[in-house]
Amino acid sequence: xxxxxxxxxxIKRSMISRLEYKKDTMIALFSFFFSNLCSLAALYFILQSIxxxxxxxxxxxxxxxxxxxxxIALDHLFSDEFWLVAYRRVKDGDMxxxxxxxVPVIFQVFxxxxxxxxFGELILGVALIAVCASSLTVKVTLGAxxxxxxxxxxxxxxITSLKVSMAALAFIFKRSGPLLQIIYNFSNYAKYPLAIYPxxxxxxxxFLLPFGLFISLxxxxxxxxxxxxxxxxxxxxxxxxxxxxxxxxxWTLCERRYxxxxx
Amino acid sequence: xxxxxxxxxxxxxxxxxxxxxxxxxxxxSRKYEEIRAVDKISFTVPDxxxxxxxxxxxxxxxxxxxxxxxxxxxxxxxxxxxxxxPYRRRQQVAQHIGVVFGQKTQLWWxxxxxxxxxxxxxxxxVSDADxxxxxxxxxxxxDITRFLSQPVRTLSLGERMRADLAASMLHNPxxxxxxxxxxxxxxxxxxxxxxxxxxxxxxxxxxxxxxTHDMNDIEDLxxxxxxxxxxxxxxxxxxxxxxxxxxxxxTLTLTVPxxxxxxxxxxxxxxxxxxxxxxxxxxxFDADKTALEQVxxxxxxxxxxxxxxxxxxxxxxxxxxxxxxQEAEHAEKI
Lengths: 263, 334
Description:
The structure holds two protein chains of two kinds.
Chain A (H helix, E strand, L loop, with lengths): L1 H19 L1 H28 L8 H22 L1 H9 L6 H4 L5 H8 L4 H18 L7 H27 L1 H4 L3 H9 L13 H10 L2 H4 L1 H9 L4 H27 L8
Chain B lengths: L1 E13 L4 H10 L3 E14 L4 E6 L5 H8 L7 E6 L8 H5 L2 E5 L11 H11 L4 H15 L14 H13 L5 E5 L7 H18 L2 E5 L3 H7 L2 E6 L2 E7 H6 L4 E7 L17 E5 L2 E7 L5 H10 L5 E6 L2 H19 L1
């Protein structure tokens, strides 16, 4: 309970920081919206020239793309500070302040920034889903809805966990940004149906970096009823729990290797 | 109470070549050199004491402070802060210590100062009554009320440092670690900061560990100093006995006629050292061996002094002398 209260206090602080630079916030919101719009347009033009992608129609691929934006957007809202940790803050010895406070360092990093830009992606994703869903004719079941919600929320937890683990390596290597970038880029694969990939990438996207598990499989379940939705829900939740526990463990182990900088 | 026992910190650094080709070779080399930043030091600081922790740049002062406040994990040895190891139970210790690094601010850069304090109030769980009392106290001794509503990035260096000090004292820590709190400050701000540290120490009995290069800080504040060099403790004890270690040294600065030179001037005794600086003569002697009166007479009679200034040896000179002796000994060994 204390931490919930503390989180909101810190977030309020982060919002005040953002609002100090009004124009910057507006530009960031707009540019995120715009860059996503551009990639959507690119996707649209590509699909215009090919009738279908591995058997998926245009609205289906659009639905995929829209859904894939949700967990990424949620992750973006809450854990953007880890990018800075990975690229800059450990290297610059800028983490000292967190080590001096009677609160877990990882909590402080989460509470350091709240990124309202994530709302731009969230709105765009939902809009795309709504537009594409209107031209799809599928029987919507309760299970399919559940698996989509679970996929979005717990998918965000999995993305965040990967991010935390990679950022934690900065405590050892001083800078782990590029590594984090590579892992994060795999989420681009998950914006399309798994069926278009060769078997080994498919396996990797389900078992190793499970973007496929919480994006492709839920959408396939909605469109074609490929999996048992409740079993899939369970699998995603367990996966998220394991990833998160591992991430926190890796972070706390690496944290003690922090060396700061001279003076 | 702080108990430090056989504390060491070793940093492992790859041996680097220089230039691009050297850096590329470094990538594939597995050679490391060990840097002993802190080498088996032990000391104890009782409650309510103000300790000056001094030494040249790179002597290991900041490294020790960082270990004591839980940022760095020691390579070996132990630290107990009120019986608790800061690197094992960081959060527990953090609640009872305050830390200021003169070189880095711990305040949020782009929000008004008062907002930073509000967040810290929540982080340290300070009650409303305590918060009000503390803010009144700090507002008075550090004079920060005027700029509470300004964003930190718009504060001057002196204001920022006072704000940082206030932030570190907000939760009434039992121990305060100050790493160069007066660096880059003007005389007035330095004075204000010293007064604040005194006031805090008197009012709440706070223990203070202070590193500084300003010997006036030390003379004003510290009853005890710990002198560190190359990771080892050279001296640990009261300020007065360090000063007397070289005897009751006094210096006389004389304005003399142009024809009196240090090399050619008559000598009183081998105990009185003569040197020249900016056209003035400097006499350096131990007042316990040669009477001051005798030296003054000599200065007026033999050196035809027109004006003179008498000064006691400063703590800065003492430290300088000790460090120079160390360097010389070190050079001899090599």
